[in-house]
Amino acid sequence: LCIDILRRVLKMRPEEPHSYLYLALALTENANALMWHVCGENLDLKGILPSPPGLDAPDPLETAKRNYTEAIKLFHKVLTQKWDSRFAQIEVTALTEMNRLASFVTFHNLDHDILD
Fold it and tell me: I need a surface site. Which of 19, 45, 88, 93 has the fewest CB within 10 A?
């Protein structure tokens, strides 16, 4: 629900970097929760297999990867776009969060395509 609301906020306020940043943070937290649900305390994915095809429910690992990938793109947007001066230093927060996510992906042996 939170992600849907933040997507609407982004559509209404694309000129504000916080719209991108908050959606990226929500996607990251959602993906983290999915990973925790699938893997428990052992977040090393080397031995985790995806859900078998044909199930009605979406594969939580694939959903998490999509969320991480989208979050990285949103953080990148905040870092690379020129923003109004009232948003000074927003890049610092985006870079910190993107680095945290990249470190998480690397540490837990997730698919590195997420970081491309």
Answer: 88
